[in-house]
Prior knowledge:
The structure is a single chain. The protein has helices at 11-34, 43-68, 72-96, 107-134. The protein is globular. 73% of the residues lie in helices and 0% in strands. The protein is mainly α and 141 residues long.
Amino acid sequence: MHTEHLENIRPGWVAAGWLVAAAMTSLIGLVLAALQLIGAGDESDQLWALVIVAFGFWVGGFFTGFRALRAPILHGIAIGLATLVAWFALNLLSLVFPDLRWQALTPTVTAALLLIQMATAVAGAWVGHRIALRGTAELQA
């Protein structure tokens, strides 16, 4: 039975998955910065940032797929799209508070980050869904 229908998406689980993904990404970044493994400002920091974002959103997708039990692919895509909502809210907030500034991302890097977030959230949601239903992520004939 295929469960990939829009009515199977639960916005609460999408929000929870995005919050778990953001928290995991922040926690890993904070730990690596505290251990002085990142933060020197060289090019390896950018690669580490991509790896940290990928892992954090995989964990958020896994959490959502394990809990929602339906439409893991759509839930993973919705987690990635939730980032657009968060960025839009931050941009609106920066209009109200002009002192709130951050380093701008190029369009290419922004698109790459969104793609990485969606792909890893979908992969995590699929694995979480498989483990929740079958007890293992391995495919069985």
